[in-house]
Structures are given as C-alpha cells and as structure tokens.
C-alpha cells in the first residue's frame, strides 16, 4: 500500500518541491491552497509527472479556522497521511510598533494556528497506529531577531516552540517530529527583489533535507534542521 504525504501550501516554492521529491518515491500526494487556478494547474502537473501516484488537491484558506477543519475532515475521509508537512505561510514585512492593523492576526492564523489545528486533527490517529512524521516549516526568522520582521517573526518563533513541545509529547508513540528552519529560499515571495538568484537557497535543497530526515532509521530522529545560503542570511 502506498504511503501518503500532506503538504499545505503546495502550489509553489518549498511546498511544491517537497511534493515533487516525495512523488518521485511513489508517495500519494495531498495538498491545498487558496488559489483555485494555481491548485488546478499543480494537480494537472503532478498527475502527469507522477502518474502512478494518487493526487488530491483541495482549495482551502488556512487563515480561517473553519476552512482548516473542513480541509482536515476531507483528508481524513480518505485516510490519515503518513507524513504531515505544515508549510503554508504568509509574510508581510513591518515593525511590531507600527505594522498595519491586522498583520498580526493574519500571520498568526496562517503560519501558526493552521499548523496547530492540523496537528490536532491527525496526531491522535498517528499515536494510535504508532507511526507518522510531522514536519514544521519554520524560518531563520524563528531563531534570529531582525528589524521589520514584526508579526512574521513572532509566528515563526511560536512555531518552533510548538514543534519542540510536540516532539516531546509524541516521542513515546513512535511519531517523529522535525522543525525545518530555512533561510532565504528562491521562491515567489522574493519576486522583484534586486538580488542575484544564486544568492538564495534552492527550494529543492530544503525538500532534499526533508526527504533525508524522513529516511533515518526508526531509532533516530533529526529534531531540527537549520539551512542557510552559503554566503549567509540576507
């Protein structure tokens, strides 16, 4: 029976790279996104590229609790994924003291709460079957304070803390938990910036790190992976 991976926010960047990496290994693929057009395009691309895999794509805005829970129920109706990658996120620059009203709520809902609700939706079944893997895609912003990081940094620091707690809670049940903390990765988020592409990390490198961590023996787990551009943070 094929194993399955659920990657939130899979239409671009790191999320898409992870789907493709696991698709190469025969995993059934599950993802979601807000943009219906992008989601349909991804579904067609993955279905053609990995014709032996089942591809499930569901439109959902994970900044809204009711849509997160609905998405989880639709996935659970088809079975509990073997791997959950909490990847969906949004970045809006701004300082804590003067960023636009609503930035905090939007980024906490999208970057943190969506992961919290999905973990609660799937972890109990992983505990019962004593198998599963949960990855949280955080950020260097969850390790290093920097100006104009604002609510994004807050959400990523909180994500790291939540993932560390989850690791301690699930270790007795053979459910692995890993924090992935990438630096500047060349994705659509950086479109239009006047920085050479070679200065960024590749999304595929993050995906390879996820795949490598997944493949350790049952006796070992990578708790945290920090990945930076070779020349350092931007």
Automatic annotation (TrEMBL):
It comes from the Bacteria. Keywords: Oxidoreductase. Its EC number is 1.-.-.-. It is an enzyme of class 1 (oxidoreductase). Pfam families: adh_short (PF00106). One of its GO terms (molecular function) is oxidoreductase activity. PANTHER family: ALCOHOL DEHYDROGENASE. Belongs to the short-chain dehydrogenases/reductases (SDR) family. This is SDR family oxidoreductase. It comes from Algoriphagus sediminis.
